[in-house]
């Protein structure tokens, strides 16, 4: 430790020192300047004075204005925790009654006879019903006149969707309606998901042909992208057809270079099968009906029993008559 100077000598040294070398008390501005956020700049290599561009200086006061992003924090409502919360005392439940003390079902109407009892149920919404894209004959004739659709070639859902006659997005199928059927005059060969009876009559009156086929939403999307070949021939049913179908699919996969091959689906629900088995709907499965057979899978046409069924019924009737006599 260096030896201390006597007090008179220390005072003399402080008096004789220059003002620049004296230590000064730090000011508030200098403290904030030291806390300011500035990017570090490299030190100059020479002693000559250089001109530098002004840098951005951000005050340290922004530390007091920090906050979460909008929507990052939601204040939780605390009910029944005093009047300061705005939901104190009754906690928004009101005064007395079942609604304050217990749970009330949403259809409770205060004890009166419910409206569904006094008036009954009206209407029904089938949320599982397929959503169809609709096309009127008037608009179809307009598209043909403008050259957007070629009537000399078969018109499939691929041509209808690509011509923008139906809007986006792609739904579960396309239904042909008879709006403007008086002006429809072009013979066409069209395949759609469904068609009204008046639309079928108008198309056939003009010399055209209409066929209804089963589609799904994914099948229509693949058909538009060209990932599947359109066909109106259903997949054969039975174990004897498995080898031929698999061989055909493998051959198509080899031809396409190993690309995955899709096929158009066939209906599986009873309602769809019955619709496309009906000749009145021009269904593509109507050729599977036997003479005198009904499109329904449940009901049978009266008087269409086979000879074997009639013979068995006659034998039973004869046996019952023999027992009685």
UniProtKB/TrEMBL annotation:
SUPFAM superfamilies: Ribosomal proteins L15p and L18e
Positions of the Large ribosomal subunit protein uL15/eL18 domain: 134-210
Assigned keywords, A-Z: Ribonucleoprotein, Ribosomal protein
InterPro entries to which the protein is assigned, alphabetical: Ribosomal_uL15, Ribosomal_uL15/eL18, Ribosomal_uL15/eL18_sf, Ribosomal_uL15_bac-type
Domain of life: Eukaryota
Coiled coil, from the record: none
Region (Disordered): 74-109
Biased composition annotated in UniProt, kind: Basic residues: 92-104
Xref: Gene3D superfamilies: 3.100.10.10
NCBIfam families (alphabetical): rplO_bact (TIGR01071)
HAMAP family according to UniProt: Ribosomal_uL15
Similarity section: Belongs to the universal ribosomal protein uL15 family.
Protein name (database record): Large ribosomal subunit protein uL15/eL18 domain-containing protein
Species annotation: Remersonia thermophila
